[in-house]
Amino acid sequence: MDTFGLLLQGFDIALQPMNLFWALVGSILGTAIGILPGIGPALTIALLLPVTVSVGPVSAFIMFAGVLYGAMYGGSTTSILINTPGEAGSMMTALEGNKMARSGRGAAALATAAVGSFVAGTIATVLLTFAAPSIAELAFYFKPADYFALTVLAFTSVAVVMGTSRVRGFISLFIGLAFGVIGIDKMTGQPRMTFGISSLLDGMELTVVLVSLFAIGEIIYVASRYRHQRDDILPIKGGLWMTKDDWKRSFMPWMRGTAIGFPMGALPGGGSEIPTMLSYTLEKKLCKKKEEFGTVGAIEGVAGPEAANNAAAAGVLVPLLTLGLPTSATAAILLAAFQNFGLQPGPFLFTSNPELIWGLIASLYVGNVMLLILNLPLVGIWVKLLLIPKPQLYAGILVFAMIGIWGVSGSTFDLACMVVVGLMGYVMRVYDFPVAPILIGLILGPMAENQLRTALAAAEGNPAVLVETPISIVILSISALFLLAPVVLKRLRKAA
């Protein structure tokens, strides 16, 4: 069946009343957590994993998609009104958006952010619709050695890009790999790194690690640095819509932001920070009213980065759905969610579970419309969330996290692990260790080991099998480039 036919089937699934309800729940939750500073989509999806065990995978992932997109929309509100990005991708929006709000043009800034998010999200979803099946078909030609090369690429790119230090990135990665080998070896049946504890024979519970690192570690960190002071929330001024000139100045930045964000989001390690920075720099160079940048606030500096942010969110789904390759912390959580339901993202998922893939893609179109309706007229209501005191907010998250873990396993050992891993997450946060490589190591480590051993077994132990195919050679070369490029560039700068 062609892509249009599959997409129509996806809309039949996404428009079912129950799935529409979950899309609405995800959109509302996503917008709320995007507005609340410090709570991102990764943390929210990790918290929801234990709760969604009883929900079907299609409904669960439709809700997760709403959370992912909603956080992109909501993050702009705090950036503009209190100069505090709710998400890393909203950092650049704060630069001009807050200046516009202080100049009495907060409504125009919020409107261009919401409409830009809708335009970019819709265009990027169209690109995802047609790009994903083609890439999935190519992946059918992959051999075990090629899949091993892909996991190496994920290891190197995420460890390098997601942290300020390569050393810290690799330490986090090796901690994740250590977590990944705990339990019974699937090929030999021998227990590994269980230390005689029977509860570890099934390995580290993925949900426990995710919730502990993202929720417990973050809560302890915020509590240790909490100061009793309220954020200065700027009132929304300037009407609820944009002028004709605002539309004219925003249109091309939306298009350019989408063009930058989607491919960057699909690249390993691309994330949303790099495309938003590139978009902001480009708009600053192309803008005819350069004097507005950094003074009264230029609307181009809000429109471009917001479009790039939302396009990157859709781009992240391309390698995740087609190859099972996570390129951000949120994508790693989504990969864990797939595995929680006993599913492995990749080319075979398009044939074995088409209703899930196409229902999810169709829900992105529906969710974009929902989010536009939720964000433009109701922005005044969302801002009230910023008045919730942080002690009560984070205490509620802590209780919710503990109930969720207990509800899934009913194990006191898992709660003890939660405390230990949560404290480790706090220490990592304090010393600026990236969390994403731990998730990559934990999730992709066993997969890489399995593909490596399968490839070597087929070649009777000959390691040359790892570089026998053109695909593996190209991917391993890119991996080496990720490792060596920063060192070479640093030396070239010193030489210059």
TrEMBL record:
It holds the Pfam family TctA. InterPro entries: DUF112_TM (IPR002823). The chain crosses the membrane at residues 20-39, 45-71, 107-132, 138-160, 167-184, 204-223, 316-337, 357-383, 395-428, 471-489. Keywords: Membrane, Transmembrane, Transmembrane helix. The keyword Repeat does not apply. Residues 20-439 form the DUF112 domain. The keyword rRNA processing does not apply. This is Tripartite tricarboxylate transporter TctA.
